[in-house]
Design brief:
This protein is of the alpha/beta class and about 600 residues long. The longest helix is centred in the middle third of the chain and has 20 residues. It has 15 helices and 26 strands. Helix content is about 30%, strand content about 25%.
């Protein structure tokens, strides 16, 4: 996964014109297909009546795919077995995931995934020069997992993963040693897997290539081109199925900026090989993806970043016959916590991303480091999220301006409106506990404005105790229904606190509300804390709400870049309420008061 992010908005959206060299088209290029998704429960419970017969049919189907474009399309959708064989440590459990089992892969396949990317970090398994021999026990283990996946009918992609930042990145200053090591690793992998299925096992040259100590981007692009050429020569010259095996080549950083796409397009043209696939990664418009700078909503700017990115990738490759695999996608904030982006905004992001990729024939592979599919229970941690993702493989879903409606915990209850975004579907009904509510009484629909009546909201609010009260479901003519949470709420209360820069918590009564973001400024109005180009701080990095504990934690990372003196905080909640709070910092001592 790409863990570095740009720190200024100017670097996020490229506005440079893209000039592309011609690329010989591959037969069969076109939009990627995928299975018709059913319910999450249905997929999880799916049992194949004859497992071995099914695997044989899968293999026959895969062998019938003639071109690399057909193969890439047939790989849709894909899933990453992240933070396992790529974990940096003693073994595949070093980063907290259980040991991979055949049953796990069976269960992932049953979710509707047609391809699996198996990231592998080799560093700790390599001997020294001159041969850099891979530990045979580890190589056997990788081969075992690859074999299970192939037997399940998956297309499988393996690579050199975190090695990219562990030693490959030293190429600018230690060119020959790095190239020798890289050559030795791929020579061994090509030899070990030369007889594996030549259409269903893919090799990816290196994950998220990056270089340290270079003279600049131009040199880095040259070094990546060299790595890709060496990789290509090793694999193609190793015999067996490697003569025609699909090879996956990344852009620098697996980024999608015009210059990076142009460079890879040039490489692919020069290699003149019909069995090449381009790969990029996408983790969204960065401020939204990590919840910083006030980007809490999936707005037009966030959506446009998806559209512009995928348009560039499509123009650079797919439109010219070179298939593209989105080797990883998700939200960068997930790297810390899946709650960094509010649930409804998150669902809108994944709904649109799946649609945008599908329309442009880009194969998608969900990054999962264990946060999404539970590798022990074999269930989805967030079934609603997966329902939205899987639906986007084949159809659009209607959404709304929010999935939250807050009702005051005391006083009069007023009607409230949501703006519907049907996304090509039509509104069919508003449901409560599966029953259709009455138009004109419980709600009204005028254009795209769905208004919930005061009477309906008062009924759903119950005794008005702060917190979740009930749910409504908006049913559209297709896709996943949109769930609206009715929440009783009062303005949150923050209390005085004292602590240190290493440990500071604000006692908080959330009273049903949800924290969206936090601003920090000095007494003179200038921005305080990290990323001081914005007053809005990064969620879960600088501040962290805990509803169950009744606290908001300000992290050591926040205080590390806060000057002594007074800091004014403004907490923005999803109800629309704001609460101000004042800090006083003196050395490592911190006090706070509302």
């Amino acid at each position: 996964m790409q863990r570095t992010a740009r720190t200024t908005l100017a670097g996020i959206v490229a506005g440079v014109a893209l000039i592309l060299v011609p690329i010989a088209p591959a037969a069969g290029a076109g939009p990627a297909g995928g299975p018709e998704p059913g319910s999450v429960a249905g997929r999880a419970a799916q049992q194949e009546p004859n497992r071995s017969e099914s695997k044989v049919k899968d293999k026959v189907k895969h062998r019938s795919k003639a071109s690399v474009a057909d193969i890439a399309a047939d790989m849709q959708p894909g899933w990453n077995l992240g933070n396992s064989l790529d974990a940096v440590g003693e073994d595949e459990t070093a980063w907290g995931n259980p040991r991979i089992t055949e049953e796990l892969l069976d269960q992932v396949r049953a979710q509707g995934f047609n391809s699996i990317r198996i990231p592998v970090t080799w560093t700790q398994q390599l001997g020294g020069p001159p041969d850099h021999t891979i530990d045979p026990v580890y190589l056997d283990r990788v081969e075992e997992v690859v074999g299970w996946a192939l037997d399940d009918g998956f297309y499988v992609m393996i690579n050199i993963h975190h090695d990219s930042w562990q030693w490959v990145n030293a190429m600018p200053t230690d060119h020959d040693a790095v190239l020798d090591r890289y050559t030795d690793v791929w020579t061994q992998l090509a030899d070990r897997f030369q007889d594996a299925d030549s259409r269903r096992l893919l090799f990816e040259s290196v994950n998220e290539p990056q270089f340290a100590g270079s003279s600049g981007e131009a040199q880095e692009l040259e070094l990546l081109a060299e790595l890709n050429r060496v990789f290509h020569e090793i694999v193609r010259g190793s015999g067996g199925g490697n003569a025609t095996r699909p090879l996956v080549l990344p852009t620098l950083h697996t980024g999608s900026e015009p210059a990076l796409l142009q460079a890879l397009a040039t490489e692919i043209t020069a290699l003149d090989d019909p069995n090449l696939i381009a790969t990029v990664h996408y983790y969204g418009f960065w401020p939204f993806s990590v919840n910083i700078a006030g980007y809490t909503r999936f707005d037009a700017e966030v959506q446009r970043d998806i559209t512009d990115t995928f348009d560039r990738v499509h123009s650079a490759f797919v439109a010219r016959g070179v298939p593209v695999i989105l080797g990883e996608y998700g939200l960068l904030g997930f790297d810390r916590h899946t709650g960094t982006v509010e649930q409804g905004e998150k669902l809108k992001f994944f709904e649109y991303l799946g649609y945008a990729a599908r329309e442009r024939g880009i194969t998608t592979m969900l990054w999962d480091n264990g946060q999404h599919f539970d590798r022990t229970a074999h269930t989805w941690q967030d079934p609603a999220l997966f329902e939205q993702i899987s639906s986007s493989w084949t159809e659009r879903s209607g959404t709304a301006s929010s999935d939250l409606v807050f009702v005051p915990a005391y006083g009069d209850v007023a009607a409230q409106s949501l703006t519907l975004t049907p996304n090509g579907t039509t509104f069919e009904a508003l449901l409560h506990d599966g029953a259709e509510l009455a138009a004109g009484t419980d709600y009204t629909l005028s254009g795209d404005q769905l208004t919930l009546s005061a009477g309906l909201l008062e009924r759903l609010a119950g005794d008005r105790t702060p917190g979740p009260a009930d749910e409504l479901v908006v049913r559209f003519s297709g896709g996943v229904p949109w769930t609206v949470r009715i929440i009783n709420q009062e303005t949150p209360v923050l209390r005085a606190a004292s602590g240190t820069t290493a440990s500071f918590e604000i006692p908080t009564s959330f009273t049903g509300d949800l924290l969206a973001t936090m601003e920090a400024t000095y007494a003179d109005g200038s921005n305080a804390g990290p990323q001081n180009w914005t007053s809005y701080k990064e969620f879960d990095v600088t501040f962290r709400p805990d509803d169950a504990a009744g606290t908001i934690t300000l992290t050591p990372e926040f205080f590390a870049e806060v000057n002594d003196g007074t800091v004014h905080l403004t907490f923005h909640f999803w109800s629309g309420d704001t609460v101000r709070y004042t800090l006083t910092k003196s050395g490592t001592t911190v006090t706070g008061a509302p």
